[in-house]
Amino acid sequence: MTIGKIIDGKAFAATLRDTVGEGVAGFVEATGRKPGLAVVLVGEDPASSVYVRSKGKMTVAAGMESFEFKRPDSIGAEDLLDLIEELNHDERIDGILVQLPLPGHIDEAVVIGAIDPAKDVDGFHVVNSGKLATGQEALVPCTPLGCIMLLKDELGDLSGLEAVVVGRSNIVGKPMAALLLAESCTVTIAHSRTRDLASVVHRADIVVAAVGRAEMVKGEWIKPGATVIDVGINRVTDTEDGKARIVGDVATAEALAHVRAITPVPGGVGPMTIAVLLRNTLVAAHARAGLGKPEGL
Ligand SMILES: Nc1nc2c(c(=O)[nH]1)N[C@@H](CN(C=O)c1ccc(C(=O)N[C@@H](CCC(=O)O)C(=O)O)cc1)CN2
Ligand SMILES: [Mg+2]
Question: Domain Tetrahydrofolate dehydrogenase/cyclohydrolase NAD(P)-binding, which positions (predicted)?
Answer without folding.
Answer: 141-287
